[in-house]
Design brief:
The structure holds two protein chains of two kinds.
Chain A (H helix, E strand, L loop, with lengths): L11 H12 L26 E6 L3 H11 L4 E7 L3 H15 L5 E3 L2 H5 L6 E4 L3 H13 L3 E4 L7 H14 L3 E3 L7 H11 L6 E7 L25 H5 L14 H4 L8 H17 L9 E5 L2 E5 L5 E5 L9 E5 L3 E4 L5 E4 L17 H12 L7 H20 L3 E4 L4 E2 L3 H4 L13
Parallel strand pairs in A: 1-2, 1-4, 2-3, 4-5, 5-6, 7-10
Antiparallel strand pairs in A: 7-11, 8-9, 8-14, 9-10, 11-12, 12-13, 14-15
Helix pairs in contact in A: 2-3, 5-6, 6-12, 7-10, 10-12
Chain B lengths: L2 H14 L12 H9 L4 H14 L5 H7 L6 H8 L5 H10 L5 H14 L5 H8 L4 H14 L2 H10 L8 H17 L3 H11 L6 H14 L4 H10 L3 H13 L4 H7 L5 H14 L5 H6 L6 H14 L5 H7 L5 H13 L5 H10 L3 H13 L5 H8 L5 H14 L5 H10 L3 H30 L4 H14 L2 H9 L6 H18 L6 H14 L4 H14 L1
The chains are: A alpha/beta, B mainly alpha.
Chain lengths: 427, 541
């Protein structure tokens, strides 16, 4: 998107500051001056750069930070992680990029969010924090790029979407396959009717993950806050004694206090693409059931969602089937269609990874427009994943009302749609 | 996940975990209550609350309620109570509020808000004045969620006396109340809140949120309000109005009619909003804005035509492809590429006829990117054009759209050129055509092979190999016996490249192996080729 020139517009920074100053009711910001201000080497001048704070400096956070720093109009000012090792590595990454020592490093995200010189927050924490950190960032007047999945429970992402709307923040969920050519092409084939009437949409769930669980591990001596701020790592989740196993990705990503296992891990991407293909960004399937090792959903328009394994073409593959053809693609960038002639209309470059999603977000921040993976879109996609997980936990079919956002005549299932937050965190 | 971690996980799971509650055949609630009321450890109580969250009945509520004021046990009790579908759970939380202090009180308020307990408005209103700002903020949030006239009145009344630390929570609570009321069909009540919040004493984000909320709460009045914002001097409201117009439907005529009376910045915002809603009714006004004397308005119109334009706008947009400033050119190009409708491609092709050479090259690229069939005859003619840019664009068109019917034309162009860059462009065109053309195309290429120069035969062999077709591959392999060493070598490398691809597919693996064996045998004298053939062969096997 282009930002159109206007003599009457205040500078973007003035605009953003107006919102941030108004919203932030937090601590006074450290007075840190933006470095590298001259706009050399093809970069925007400092006054026109979007300033970025990063919360969560694990592997994904480091990758995303690189993607943000590769854009000419950004400047990362601060990083935050409750794990000391990652925090230090994050600072080193940013300082190495800019050739200075200016990047601030925080244990507590509230300190980072209190900085009024930060426009945009990248959130790449564990899934447990995605919703709450995003909401707090919005309350602090920031625009937000948050990694997927957007929530651990349905009511969380509903609250997130409502918050973004009422506070007027720009939000992009890290479902970056919406900005990658081969996936967009596949979705376009489905949406344009070139596959005929859609019948089945196949979304791969992550393979090889442990089953979802609610395990409590034995307590171990808690590290110092500098080394690992355990209470902050737990955040809104139920408190328990420290155990070094919890923070390992292989553990927490299947623990229902912190994530949603294989279905949300990849489904936040693949189900999301199915939703888009079915022009269902404002809804999700209304019935869910299990067949063998697959979870099926049925949209109100009759199209089936199939959450499964075994698709081709690398990670996060999808397959869209219609009465006149099908398309299958994945992160390898390979794409196959029937009839093969559908490929003649292909206009895209390459597969994963792509920085386009970050670029699109930054453009929306400047124009104040909705992102392709905005909060409502991401909420609806992850809702489909969460309801499939409820179906898995109850081991029986579940019906879903996408307007009321409740399971139909099913009090037991409805108990699983939310996650009561530990104080003082609230939605 | 590493295998070590999987084993570690499995070991921990085996030691520590009984079946999760959803997998248990029977749940003994009486025993669970005994855990909560007895001398059990906090962790045992916590696991019990986890189970009660899903399975608990009203019977367990007194035991849970007793835990609510205890800071160590409060959250686990709320974990179970907050989601229970019983009024007794609501009552238990309400009753606990006066007994709880500090974080436990904050937590109880959060759960009351989550349950939207309208009978708790009184106690929550009291909590607004709590000296603990966390308690006051949580109360403001809960009152907003409850969203009754009493709760919103309490929030509005408290604003005058609220400490500054609570102001944001108060504003957000009111905005949230408006959202709930609108969603519940009580737009009038929501509008009453929003109208108060449009006042200058509220911070900008709250006024913007109220403005957005107001347009949703009273959709019939929205166009008037949005036009007023577009006509105003506040750029934040103007941008928001544009965004709302792009997200909503209806009243397009009204917006269009108002456009000439807006300032340039208002027009720019409106054009963006109209482009977003994609209503053809807006198109004539947008096309008219192309004539604006304000360059920024004109640019906005060029951009908006990408979604709203039709064939009538093509001539004007194509002219802009020759504009002096790069931004206009890029915007016009993007709009022409994005325009939809069956009559767009013919209109672009028609514009080609009278265009300058530079513009014709651009239009050919544009048509190719649009996959427009009209580009093919233009490209065939363009192969003979005196302008190198047009010839290059023509080859590019044919690489994307050409078929067997254009083979003779491309071969003639290939024969006529002495430029390596054009030979490469011709090869790219032939590879694309061969991929689409099937057997007839391959037969056509084979038919031209013998009469071609050495340089062009090399090109054709690579084209044939790229198809992966057995007949084509045979022809490539047959060239290994030819007299010209350059042709032999090129045929060998092309065959290896083709076999590498064919070897990835089980259905063509044998074909690949045979081809590589042939290359290895016939090119034994060329160490590089023979070694590479063996390497690929090893990889396939």
């Amino acid at each position: 998107m282009k930002q159109l020139a206007s003599n009457e517009q205040p500078s973007r920074r003035q605009f953003l500051k107006g919102a941030a100053t108004a919203v932030a009711g937090l601590a006074v910001a450290p007075n840190i001056i933006t470095s590298g201000a001259l706009g050399a080497n093809g970069r925007a001048a400092a006054s026109e750069r979007l300033t970025v704070g990063v919360i969560g400096m694990g592997g994904r956070g480091q990758y995303d930070t690189g993607a943000f720093m590769s854009q000419p109009d950004t400047q990362v000012l601060a990083v935050c992680d409750v794990i000391g090792e990652r925090r230090n590595a994050g600072k080193e990454q940013v300082d190495a990029q800019y050739g200075n020592k200016d990047c601030a490093a925080y244990i507590d995200m509230l300190e980072l969010l209190a900085r009024q010189d930060i426009d945009v927050v990248l959130i790449a924490t564990g899934d447990n924090w995605h919703t709450e950190a995003s909401i707090m960032a919005a309350r602090a007047g920031k625009d937000i790029y948050c990694e997927k999945p957007m929530s651990v429970a349905i009511t969380e992402s509903r609250a997130l979407s409502d918050t973004m709307r009422r506070l007027g923040r720009v939000f992009q969920c890290g479902t970056q396959r919406r900005s990658i050519g081969n996936f967009r092409f596949a979705v376009d084939l489905a949406r344009s009717g070139k596959l005929g009437q859609l019948t089945e949409l196949h979304a791969q769930e992550a393979a090889g993950m442990p089953p979802i669980n609610e395990i409590t591990l034995p307590g171990e001596p808690e590290p110092s806050r500098e080394e690992f701020d355990w209470n902050r790592w737990l955040g809104p989740a139920m408190w328990r004694p420290y155990n070094k196993e919890y923070p390992t990705r292989g553990f927490w990503s299947s623990h229902l206090d912190f994530s949603g296992g294989s279905i949300t891990e990849w489904g936040s991407h693949t189900v999301d693409l199915c939703q888009w293909a079915n022009d269902a960004d404002a809804t999700c399937p209304v019935e869910y059931w299990k067949e063998g090792d697959r979870f099926l959903g049925k949209y109100a328009n009759g199209v089936k969602l199939v959450i499964r394994t075994g698709l081709r073409f690398g990670t996060c593959p999808v397959r869209f089937e219609g009465t006149e053809g099908w398309v299958e693609t994945g992160d390898s960038g390979e794409i196959e269609t029937y009839p093969s002639s559908l490929l003649q209309e292909r206009r895209f470059n390459g597969g994963y990874p792509s920085d386009n999603h970050v670029r699109a977000f930054l453009d929306c921040v400047k124009t104040r427009q909705e992102c392709v993976s905005n909060a409502e879109v991401a909420h609806r996609s992850i809702t489909a994943c969460h309801v499939a997980n409820i179906c898995k936990r109850l081991d029986r079919p579940v019906k879903w009302d996408p307007v009321a956002e409740q399971c139909i005549d099913d009090a037991e299932a409805n108990r699983l749609t939310s996650r009561p937050y530990r104080e003082p965190w609230y939605l | 996940m590493s295998i070590q971690r999987v084993f570690a996980f499995a070991a921990i799971a085996a030691v520590l975990v009984s079946a999760p509650v959803w997998a248990q055949a029977a749940f003994d609630e009486a025993a669970a209550i005994g855990v909560l009321t007895g001398e059990s450890t906090p962790l045992q109580k916590q696991e019990t609350c986890r189970a009660l969250r899903q399975k608990g009945t009203v019977a367990c509520i007194p035991a849970l309620a007793a835990m609510l004021p205890n800071p160590e046990l409060s959250h686990m009790a709320r974990y179970a109570l907050e989601v229970m579908p019983y009024p007794e759970a609501t009552q238990a939380l309400r009753d606990a509020l006066p007994k709880a202090q500090g974080p436990a009180k904050v937590g109880v308020i959060i759960s009351i808000g989550a349950r939207r307990d309208a009978e708790a408005v009184g106690v929550l209103t009291e909590a607004l004045s709590d000296s603990d700002a966390d308690v006051a903020r949580a109360a403001a949030g809960a009152l907003g969620r409850i969203a009754t006239p009493d709760s919103t009145d309490a929030l509005l009344a408290f604003r005058a006396e609220a400490p500054e630390a609570v102001h944001p929570a108060l504003a957000e609570g009111l905005l949230a109340a408006g959202q709930y009321l609108t969603r519940e069909g009580k737009g009038k009540d929501a509008a009453a809140i929003y109208n108060v919040m449009l006042g200058g004493e509220w911070p900008a984000y709250a006024r913007l949120g109220a403005f957005r909320g107001l347009t949703a709460a009273e959709p019939k009045k929205a166009p008037k309000r949005l036009l007023a914002a577009l006509a105003g001097y506040d750029p934040q409201f103007r941008d928001l109005a544009a965004q709302i117009i792009s997200e909503t439907t209806g009243a397009t005529k009204r917006y269009v009619k108002a456009m000439p009376n807006l300032s340039p910045t208002g027009q720019i915002a409106l054009l963006r909003g109209l482009a977003g809603r994609k209503d053809p009714e807006a198109r004539p006004a947008v096309a008219q804005a192309l004539s604006s004397e304000d360059p920024a308005v004109k640019l906005a119109a060029v951009s908006a035509l990408g979604t709203l334009g039709n064939a009538e706008d093509v001539a004007a947009l194509t002219m802009l492809l020759s504009a002096d400033d790069a931004e206009t050119v890029a915007t016009a190009d993007a709009s022409l590429a994005a325009m939809t409708g069956g009559d767009i491609d013919p209109a672009i092709a028609a514009a080609y006829e009278n265009a300058t050479p530079a513009l014709r090259a651009k239009l050919l690229e544009l048509l190719a990117n649009r996959r427009a069939e009209q580009a093919v005859p233009l490209a065939v003619a363009g192969l003979k054009d005196g302008d190198a840019a047009i010839r290059a664009a023509s080859f590019n068109v044919l690489s994307m759209l050409g078929r067997q019917e254009q083979l003779a034309d491309v071969m003639a162009a290939l024969a006529a050129t002495t430029e390596n860059s054009e030979r490469s462009a011709a090869e790219k065109a032939l590879v694309g055509m061969a991929a689409r053309g099937g057997e007839p195309m391959i037969d056509g290429v084979l038919g031209t092979l013998d009469g071609s120069s050495v340089e062009n035969r090399v090109v054709l062999l690579r084209v044939l190999a790229s198809t992966g077709n057995p007949k084509a591959l045979d022809a490539v392999l047959a060239s290994l016996d030819g007299a010209d060493e350059a042709v032999r070598n090129e045929a060998a490398w092309a065959a290896i490249a083709a076999a590498t691809e064919l070897g990835k597919n089980p259905g063509t693996k044998e074909l690949a192996v045979n081809a590589l064996n042939t290359v290895a045998t016939k090119c034994a004298g060329n160490a590089d080729i023979a070694q590479r053939a063996q390497e690929v062969l090893g990889g396939i096997k």
